[in-house]
Amino acid sequence: MSTPKAIFCWSGGKDSSYALHKILIEKQFDVKYLLTTVNSKFNRISMHGVHEDLLSLQSASLGIPLLKVSVSEGTNSEYEQQMEKTLLQVKSEEIEHVIFGDIFLEDLRIYREQNLAKVGMTGVFPLWKLDTKWMINDFLMKGFKTITCCINDGYLTEEWVGKEIDRSFVENLPITVDPCGENGEFHTFCFEGPIFKKKIPFSIGDRVYKPLTVTADNMCSSSATTKGFWFCDLIPTNAS
Q1: Would you say domain 5-124 falls under CATH 3.40.630.30?
Q2: Using one digit for the tens of pLDDT, what is the confidence trace for 172-228?
Q3: Is 8 helix (H, G, I), strand (E, B) or coil?
Q4: Which of 61, 121, 154, 210 has the least C-beta neighbours within 10 A?
Q5: According to the model, what pLDDT value does residue 46 have?
Q6: What contacts 24+ positions apart, CB below 8 Å, involve 138-143?
Q7: 12 φψ region: left (φ > 0), alpha (ψ -120 to 50), beta (else)
C-alpha cells in the first residue's frame, strides 16, 4: 500500500521543523509541498516576519517544493479564501492530508479542521498533546537550532527577540510562558537541524516594534496585556 500524500503547513519555526522531522522519520506521509502564508505587502511570512528569501532557502535545504498562500489584508476571511483556493489546487493532485505543528490549542485545531472539511481534506497533528517542556528539550537534543524572530510584549520584553533558543533560554523563561511559545508568546526561525541538508545562512538585523492593531479578527487572539510585537529582522547572507 502506497504512503498517503500530504502537504505540510510550514511556518519556518521550531514546531514545524520538529513535526516535519517526526513525519519524515516515521514515514507516515509522502510530503509533497510546504504550504506557507506570506504577507504580499512585505514579502514576509505572516506573523513571524521572516523574509521570503529565507523561506525559499529553507525549502531548498529541505528538498521539498514550496506553495505560498498570499494575503495582504490580514483578515480571517481573506486567509480562508486564499487557503481554500490553494487546498483545492493540491487536492486535484490526489493530496488529501494537511499536516500542522499545533500542540494543544483546542480552538485552533477545531478552526483548522472545520476549514479543511469544506474542501474534503483531513488534518494531521503529529505533536498533539506532547509535553512542551519535554518537546523543546528533545528538539535541542536532536541538534536543531532556532532563533526568536517575533515576541509578544504581553509575555516577554524586547531583549528576548533575536535570541537563539538553548537550554539557558528555556530555563530562564517566565513561568507564565509556555516553553514552546504555544500560546503565541514567541515565534521562531529554524536554521539548522537533521531535516536540513545545509545550514540556512543569515545575519541579525534591526529590532522593530509594531503596535497591535485591534480588529474583529484578532481581538481575542492575544493576551489582555499585549500592546504589540517585537520583530528581529533576519537578513539572508551568502554561505561561506
Answers
A1: no
A2: 999 999 999 999 999 999 999 999 999 999 999 999 999 987 654 444 445 558 999
A3: strand
A4: 210
A5: 84
A6: 138/18, 139/14, 139/17, 139/18, 140/165, 140/166, 140/167, 140/170, 142/18, 142/21, 142/193, 142/194, 143/192, 143/193, 143/194
A7: left
**In the chain, domain spans:** 5-124, 142-236
Using alpha carbons, select from 234, 232, 231, 233 the residue that is nearest to residue 202.
234
Amino acid at 223: S
Least confident of 73-87, 116-130, 161-175: 73-87
What integer best gives the mean pLDDT of the chain?
92
Pairwise CA distance, residues 87 & 96, whole Å:
9
3-state secondary structure of 212: coil
Bridge partners, 151 (sequence order): 186, 230
| Sign of the Cα pseudo-torsion (95, 122, 76, 38, in order) | negative
Dihedral sign for Cα 154, 11, 73, 219, please.
negative
Give residue 233's Cα distance to chain centre: 16
CATH of domain 142-236: 3.90.1490
